[in-house]
Amino acid sequence: MPDPVGIADHAAAQSDRWLFLALLIVVGLCAAFIWRWIVADRQTIAARLEAVTDRQLKQVEFLATVVANNTVALGKVVATIEQCRDPRRQRRTEHEHTD
Hints:
about 100 residues; mainly alpha; rod-shaped
């Protein structure tokens, strides 16, 4: 097993350019790892966003159908109420004129 103190002494005896190159390699490897992690995370987020968007579009279509059905039903209710009101108004008007 190599002696850690001997390794440290040998490294200290080297020039600074080797330290710079080693640091450059370590930083480059870290940057590459972080870049790959960010790209993979971005792809995962993009897939999740697409799934959520698809679900939202389906819900919007469903809600548009519900609103259209409710509008038709409301129109029928209003027409029925108007039909019921008219005879009562006529009777009330006739009753007031007879008095």
